[in-house]
Amino acid sequence: MPNKQLRAVVAIAAFMAGSACGAQQPAGSAPGPAADRGPDPRVQGLEEELGTTKRELEALKFESEQLRKSETELKAKADEAEALQKKLTDVVGKFGDVTTEDGMVRVELIDKILFPVGEADLTDNGREVLAQVGAALKDIEDKQVWVQGHTDDSPIVIRKPKKGEEAKAKKGDKNAKDAKVDPKAAKGEAPPEPNDAVLPFVTNWELSAARALTVVHYLQDEAKIDPSRLAAVAFGQYRPSSKSKAKNRRIEIVLYPRAKLAPK
Predict the structure, then answer these.
(1) Phi, psi for residue 150 in degrees, rounded to 5
(2) Beta strands across the sheet bearing 250-257
(3) What are the pLDDT digits (tens) for 38-63?
(4) Cα(9)–Cα(250) distance, rounded to whole angstroms?
């Protein structure tokens, strides 16, 4: 209790006690002249001040209880985030990092573990890592899961087709009986070299989007995570986390508090 309020309460109590003692008169005596003047204004003022002090004390008590409640809730959330971070760190291991910030838990996975260079198909190691991550995420039903695709700023390069693609293309050429003869070949000129290059993704936007969607589909189809919790987000090269290009090529799985959606 503040000193000012304490002094006010003590003064009021002392004054009222003194007034009570002075007001006592022998039985049968006639009232003095003070009885005709009505209530003492000093007593009324002190009583009003006492009422104000009581209201202020009640307000301070309520505020203190609210602060204690907020601190308890914040501590519970911090403990939950710390436990979740530890659980995911044990799962991810050396294949990535797990951090917490502003109530979010961020799982950062190295792209070369999940995907071949420039592609969006999961590697065998990538499937194993996502299987463990997915099993951990399935138990955390109060979090929504956003998969974010990131790349470095290296431009997309044209690649040669894979062996299976090349063999399929050659087989198709042999079976094409009605193929037209190249006019230059008919005139004895050398035909142009065939362009068997493949451009699977036009820019890093498409590559990061395809990788994020691949992870989302795996979490839904293989890990059996509720799809209403999932989202795929593509950032391309525009949110680098480091000067190292290798670290910028990554998949981030970000856990947010799950929003309660009600149909309208």
Answers:
(1) -130, 145
(2) 96-101, 104-110, 250-257, 143-150, 230-236
(3) 678 888 888 888 889 888 888 888 88
(4) 66
